[in-house]
Amino acid sequence: MRLLTHNMLACNIKGVTNGYPLRLEAEKWVEKEVNFNADFLRSVFPKIEWPALVGAVRALGCHDLLPQDAPNPSALDSDDDFLRRFHRALLQLHVEEGALVCPETGRRFPISKGIPNMLLHEDEV
Amino acid sequence: MDHSFDVNSLNPDMIDKKRSNKLASSKMLSNIAQIPLVSQHPEVYEPCDDSFALVDALLADRTNLLNLQPRFCMEVGCGSGYVIASLAIMLHQGCSGAQYFATDINPQAAETTASTLEAHGVHAEIICTDLASGLRKRLAGMMDVIVVNPPYVPTPEEEVGCEGITASWAGGENGRKVIDRILPIVHSLLSEKGWFYMVTLTANNPSQICSMMREMGYASRIVVQRSTEEESLHIIKFWREHMEKKGSGSWISQFPLLSFWRSSGGSSS
């Protein structure tokens, strides 16, 4: 699971209103090379919840990869170093084993072999 | 001097080399997933006529898809991974920045898809979930391509959403139970320029599906129509109607779908 996906996932339990962002617990993660595509990064940047992404990279122990505050969008055009870091955070870090935890209910959704399992129990639908 | 090409005049080594080059390049240039590389599991639906028809529809529309330049693509109910792997492979060269998502309610299908993608050297983010549950809020309006080969077989209602492979085909009354849940989800996920491809069976009453989509603002056309011994399959493509008015010029083969259904599928229900 890439951190892009973490950024897009919310708790789906019925009645939960503050199910985002899911807290990331990473037991095992790997980095995989992904083709760098500046156009994609620029177009997806406005869709990203910055604090959730920063929280996720820190959960992996990468404390200095991203700035705490979202940069001005102009950095995407002028700051190549930032764009590379954003690329790495969003697409290259893969969580293999761990869990996603709902901030409201504490419900844990396991991540196994890189696949988050968001299936609900009968009483949660 | 005559330089016209004659295979027989080449020495045998040259011919062998040409042959092996051709084989190597055909493997490399293969623009869909290869069956021997598709993973299998007893509880996961294997690629079958419907999967092939869906991939053929995507291939038939490949030039349009490359022009669309999708940023986000998604398969709901990815099963073996054959379809999402094929989509990623066929768009690999022309849309390098595209991101792929694949969901399945069956954990074994999710894992099988992961193996299939890995065997082909392509990537999709796989989420084990019911349709797009958990993704709908944040991905709303972002999907440029959605493909679905739904559980469309008419079955007793209680078989719908069962564990294991049954979930891949059991569609309830008229095979519509899951399809009818998918349509509003697709509507919320699809981007303004987005395209949605879905497999349907005559028994699903496709004309009614098209009418329901039309009420939500979508035009439709049949991309592939195929009859097998057991079933008559249609791969239908949907897109927001206002795109058509802009005159993109890519709808040459479009024809009035509803009248087609009226004339050919009226006796199905």
UniProtKB/TrEMBL annotation, chain A:
Pfam families assigned to the protein according to its UniProt record, in alphabetical order: Trm112p (PF03966)
Signal peptide: none
InterPro entries for this protein: Trm112, Trm112-like
Gene3D superfamilies for the chain: 2.20.25.10
Entry's family note: Belongs to the TRM112 family.
Record note on quaternary structure: Interacts with TRM9.
Protein name per Swiss-Prot or TrEMBL: Multifunctional methyltransferase subunit TRM112-like protein
Lineage of source species: Eukaryota, Viridiplantae, Streptophyta, Embryophyta, Tracheophyta
UniProtKB/TrEMBL annotation, chain B:
Protein origin, superkingdom: Eukaryota
Domain Methyltransferase small: 71-153
Record InterPro entries: DNA_methylase_N6_adenine_CS (IPR002052), Euk-Arch_PrmC-MTase (IPR052190), PrmC-related (IPR004557), SAM-dependent_MTases_sf (IPR029063), Small_mtfrase_dom (IPR007848)
Subcellular location: Nucleus
Main subcellular location of this protein, as a coarse class: nucleus
GO molecular function terms listed in the Swiss-Prot or TrEMBL record: S-adenosylmethionine-dependent methyltransferase activity
Gene3D superfamilies associated with the record: Vaccinia Virus protein VP39
Protein known as: Methyltransferase small domain-containing protein
Keywords of the record: Methyltransferase, Nucleus, S-adenosyl-L-methionine, Transferase
Alphabetical list of CDD domains matching this protein: AdoMet_MTases
Classification via Pfam families: MTS (PF05175)
Family: Belongs to the eukaryotic/archaeal PrmC-related family.
Signal peptide (residue range): none
Keyword Electron transport: no
Any GO BP annotation: methylation
The keyword Nucleus is annotated on this UniProt entry: yes
Gene Ontology terms: cellular component: nucleus
PROSITE patterns assigned to the protein according to its UniProt record, in alphabetical order: N6_MTASE
